[in-house]
């Protein structure tokens, strides 16, 4: 870690931009991490690692000041000149690369999932604590516009006591795209449960706290597919709330993104947060003068009781703007000032315990209990 910008505990000194090394420039690296890092005051994208010459050229074209290297080790070899490592590499590399970065004295942000198991995540958390270094997981969907709105409605008490929470990431992709994300090799951590399911479980835990039991159904529907592409989870929280979560690539008719049912009212929201689409189109936060993460009024969810939004029931609720930039702003603040990162490795471990239980439940066809943690 640079002696100019950081002290040995991993808290940055208050001058100069924090220099970021990004490992991986596929979808996660090029669409999410690099643009958001570049848009964050106090962070500077310094080095990008990818073995693909075309992706190297893409990184230099999109971020002209960036240095490109062929291997993750080449980034780690520059540890003395960097202040943060971001891992946007394939899932199976997260644990070894995060371990190497922490041992090199660098704070780390890891794309979800942090690891294959809660035990691995807890081991990484212990290493980061021992070294006095930040370790965070990129759960950007906490800053989706619709999730922020649901959270506000719950905190304001508008819905009353929450009884059931329904959340979906459904797509219609009848043909597999291939690649490691759809690989059947267990080492790759492919499939939707650990991909989009990581987001849905994290959101449910953020809203309603620990889970005591998990039931799951997981299928491989598409011809030629190797990993789960249609999965359902039913979670019972210690608070009594029940969360029903769907992740699917085989949904011919999409359901609502959220349906939240409380003792006073319910909230139903269709569609997806606009930030991923904007990033894919090359738009960047704060660069074109338009408000970031704002959706049309026609996309608003509806709040009501005893009626259906499909027949005009309920009142439209303004959707809070999506705010992915808030994640890296919080990372920069934590490095400068100390304190907890916006998503902790301990929180990631809790989500992984649920994902592990879901995998076991789907395999054995039974409900799996999760023991309370001290």
N/C terminus separation: 34 Å
Number of helices: 10
SSE order in H/E notation? EHEHEHEHEHEHEHEEEEEHEEHHE
Strand content: 15-25%
Please outline the helices and strands:
Blueprint: E1 18-23, H1 27-38, E2 43-49, H2 53-62, E3 67-69, H3 72-76, E4 84-87, H4 94-103, E5 108-111, H5 118-131, E6 135-138, H6 145-155, E7 162-170, H7 196-208, E8 211-219, E9 230-237, E10 242-248, E11 258-262, E12 266-269, H8 275-280, E13 301-304, E14 315-317, H9 325-337, H10 345-364, E15 368-369
Parallel strand pairs: 1-2, 1-4, 2-3, 4-5, 5-6, 7-10
Antiparallel strand pairs: 7-11, 8-9, 8-15, 9-10, 11-12, 12-13, 13-14
Give a written overview of the molecule.
There is one protein chain. By secondary structure, the chain is an alpha/beta fold. It has a nine-stranded mixed beta sheet with strand order 14-13-12-11-7-10-9-8-15. It contains ten helices and 15 strands. The radius of gyration is 21 Å and the shape is globular. Helix 5 links the parallel strand 5 and strand 6 (135-138). It has helices at 27-38, 53-62, 72-76, 94-103, 118-131, 145-155, 196-208, 275-280, 325-337, 345-364, and strands at 18-23, 43-49, 67-69, 84-87, 108-111, 135-138, 162-170, 211-219, 230-237, 242-248, 258-262, 266-269, 301-304, 315-317, 368-369.
Identify the notable features of this structure and list them briefly.
disordered N terminus, alpha/beta, 9-stranded mixed β-sheet, 6-stranded parallel β-sheet, globular, 374 residues
What's this entry about, in short?
With 374 residues, the protein is of the alpha/beta class.
């Amino acid at each position: 870690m640079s002696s100019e910008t950081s002290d040995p505990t991993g808290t940055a000194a208050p001058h100069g931009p924090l220099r970021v090394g990004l490992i991986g420039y596929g979808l996660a690296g090029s669409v999410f991490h690099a643009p958001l890092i570049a848009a964050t005051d106090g962070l500077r994208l310094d080095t990008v690692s990818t073995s693909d010459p075309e992706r190297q050229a893409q990184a230099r074209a999109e971020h002209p000041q960036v240095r490109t290297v062929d291997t993750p080790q080449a980034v780690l070899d520059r540890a003395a000149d960097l202040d943060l490592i971001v891992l946007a590499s394939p899932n199976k590399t997260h644990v070894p690369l995060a371990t190497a970065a922490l041992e090199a004295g660098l704070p780390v942000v890891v794309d979800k999932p942090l690891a294959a198991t809660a035990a691995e995540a807890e081991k990484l958390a212990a290493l980061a604590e021992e070294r006095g270094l930040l370790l965070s997981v990129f759960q950007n969907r906490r800053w989706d516009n619709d999730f922020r709105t649901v959270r506000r409605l719950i905190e304001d008490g508008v819905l009353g006591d929450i009884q059931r929470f329904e959340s979906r990431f459904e797509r219609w992709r009848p043909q597999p795209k291939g690649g490691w994300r759809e690989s059947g090799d267990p080492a790759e951590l492919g499939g939707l449960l650990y991909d989009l399911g990581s987001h849905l479980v994290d959101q449910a835990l953020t809203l309603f706290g620990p889970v005591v039991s998990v039931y799951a159904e997981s299928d491989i529907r598409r011809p030629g597919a190797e990993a789960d592409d249609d999965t359902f989870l039913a979670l019972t929280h210690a608070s009594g709330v029940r969360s029903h979560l769907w992740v699917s690539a085989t949904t011919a008719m999409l359901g609502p993104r959220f349906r939240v049912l409380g003792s006073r009212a319910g909230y139903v929201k269709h569609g997806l947060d606009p930030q991923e689409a904007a990033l894919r189109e090359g738009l960047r936060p704060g660069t074109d003068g338009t408000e970031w993460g704002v959706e049309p009024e026609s996309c608003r969810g509806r709040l009501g009781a005893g009626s259906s939004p499909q027949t005009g029931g309920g009142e439209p609720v303004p959707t809070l703007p999506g705010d992915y930039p808030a994640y890296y702003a919080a990372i920069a603040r934590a490095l400068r000032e100390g304190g907890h990162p916006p998503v902790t490795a301990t929180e990631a471990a809790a989500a992984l315990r649920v994902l592990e239980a879901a995998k076991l439940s789907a395999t054995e066809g039974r409900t799996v209990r999760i023991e309370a943690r001290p």
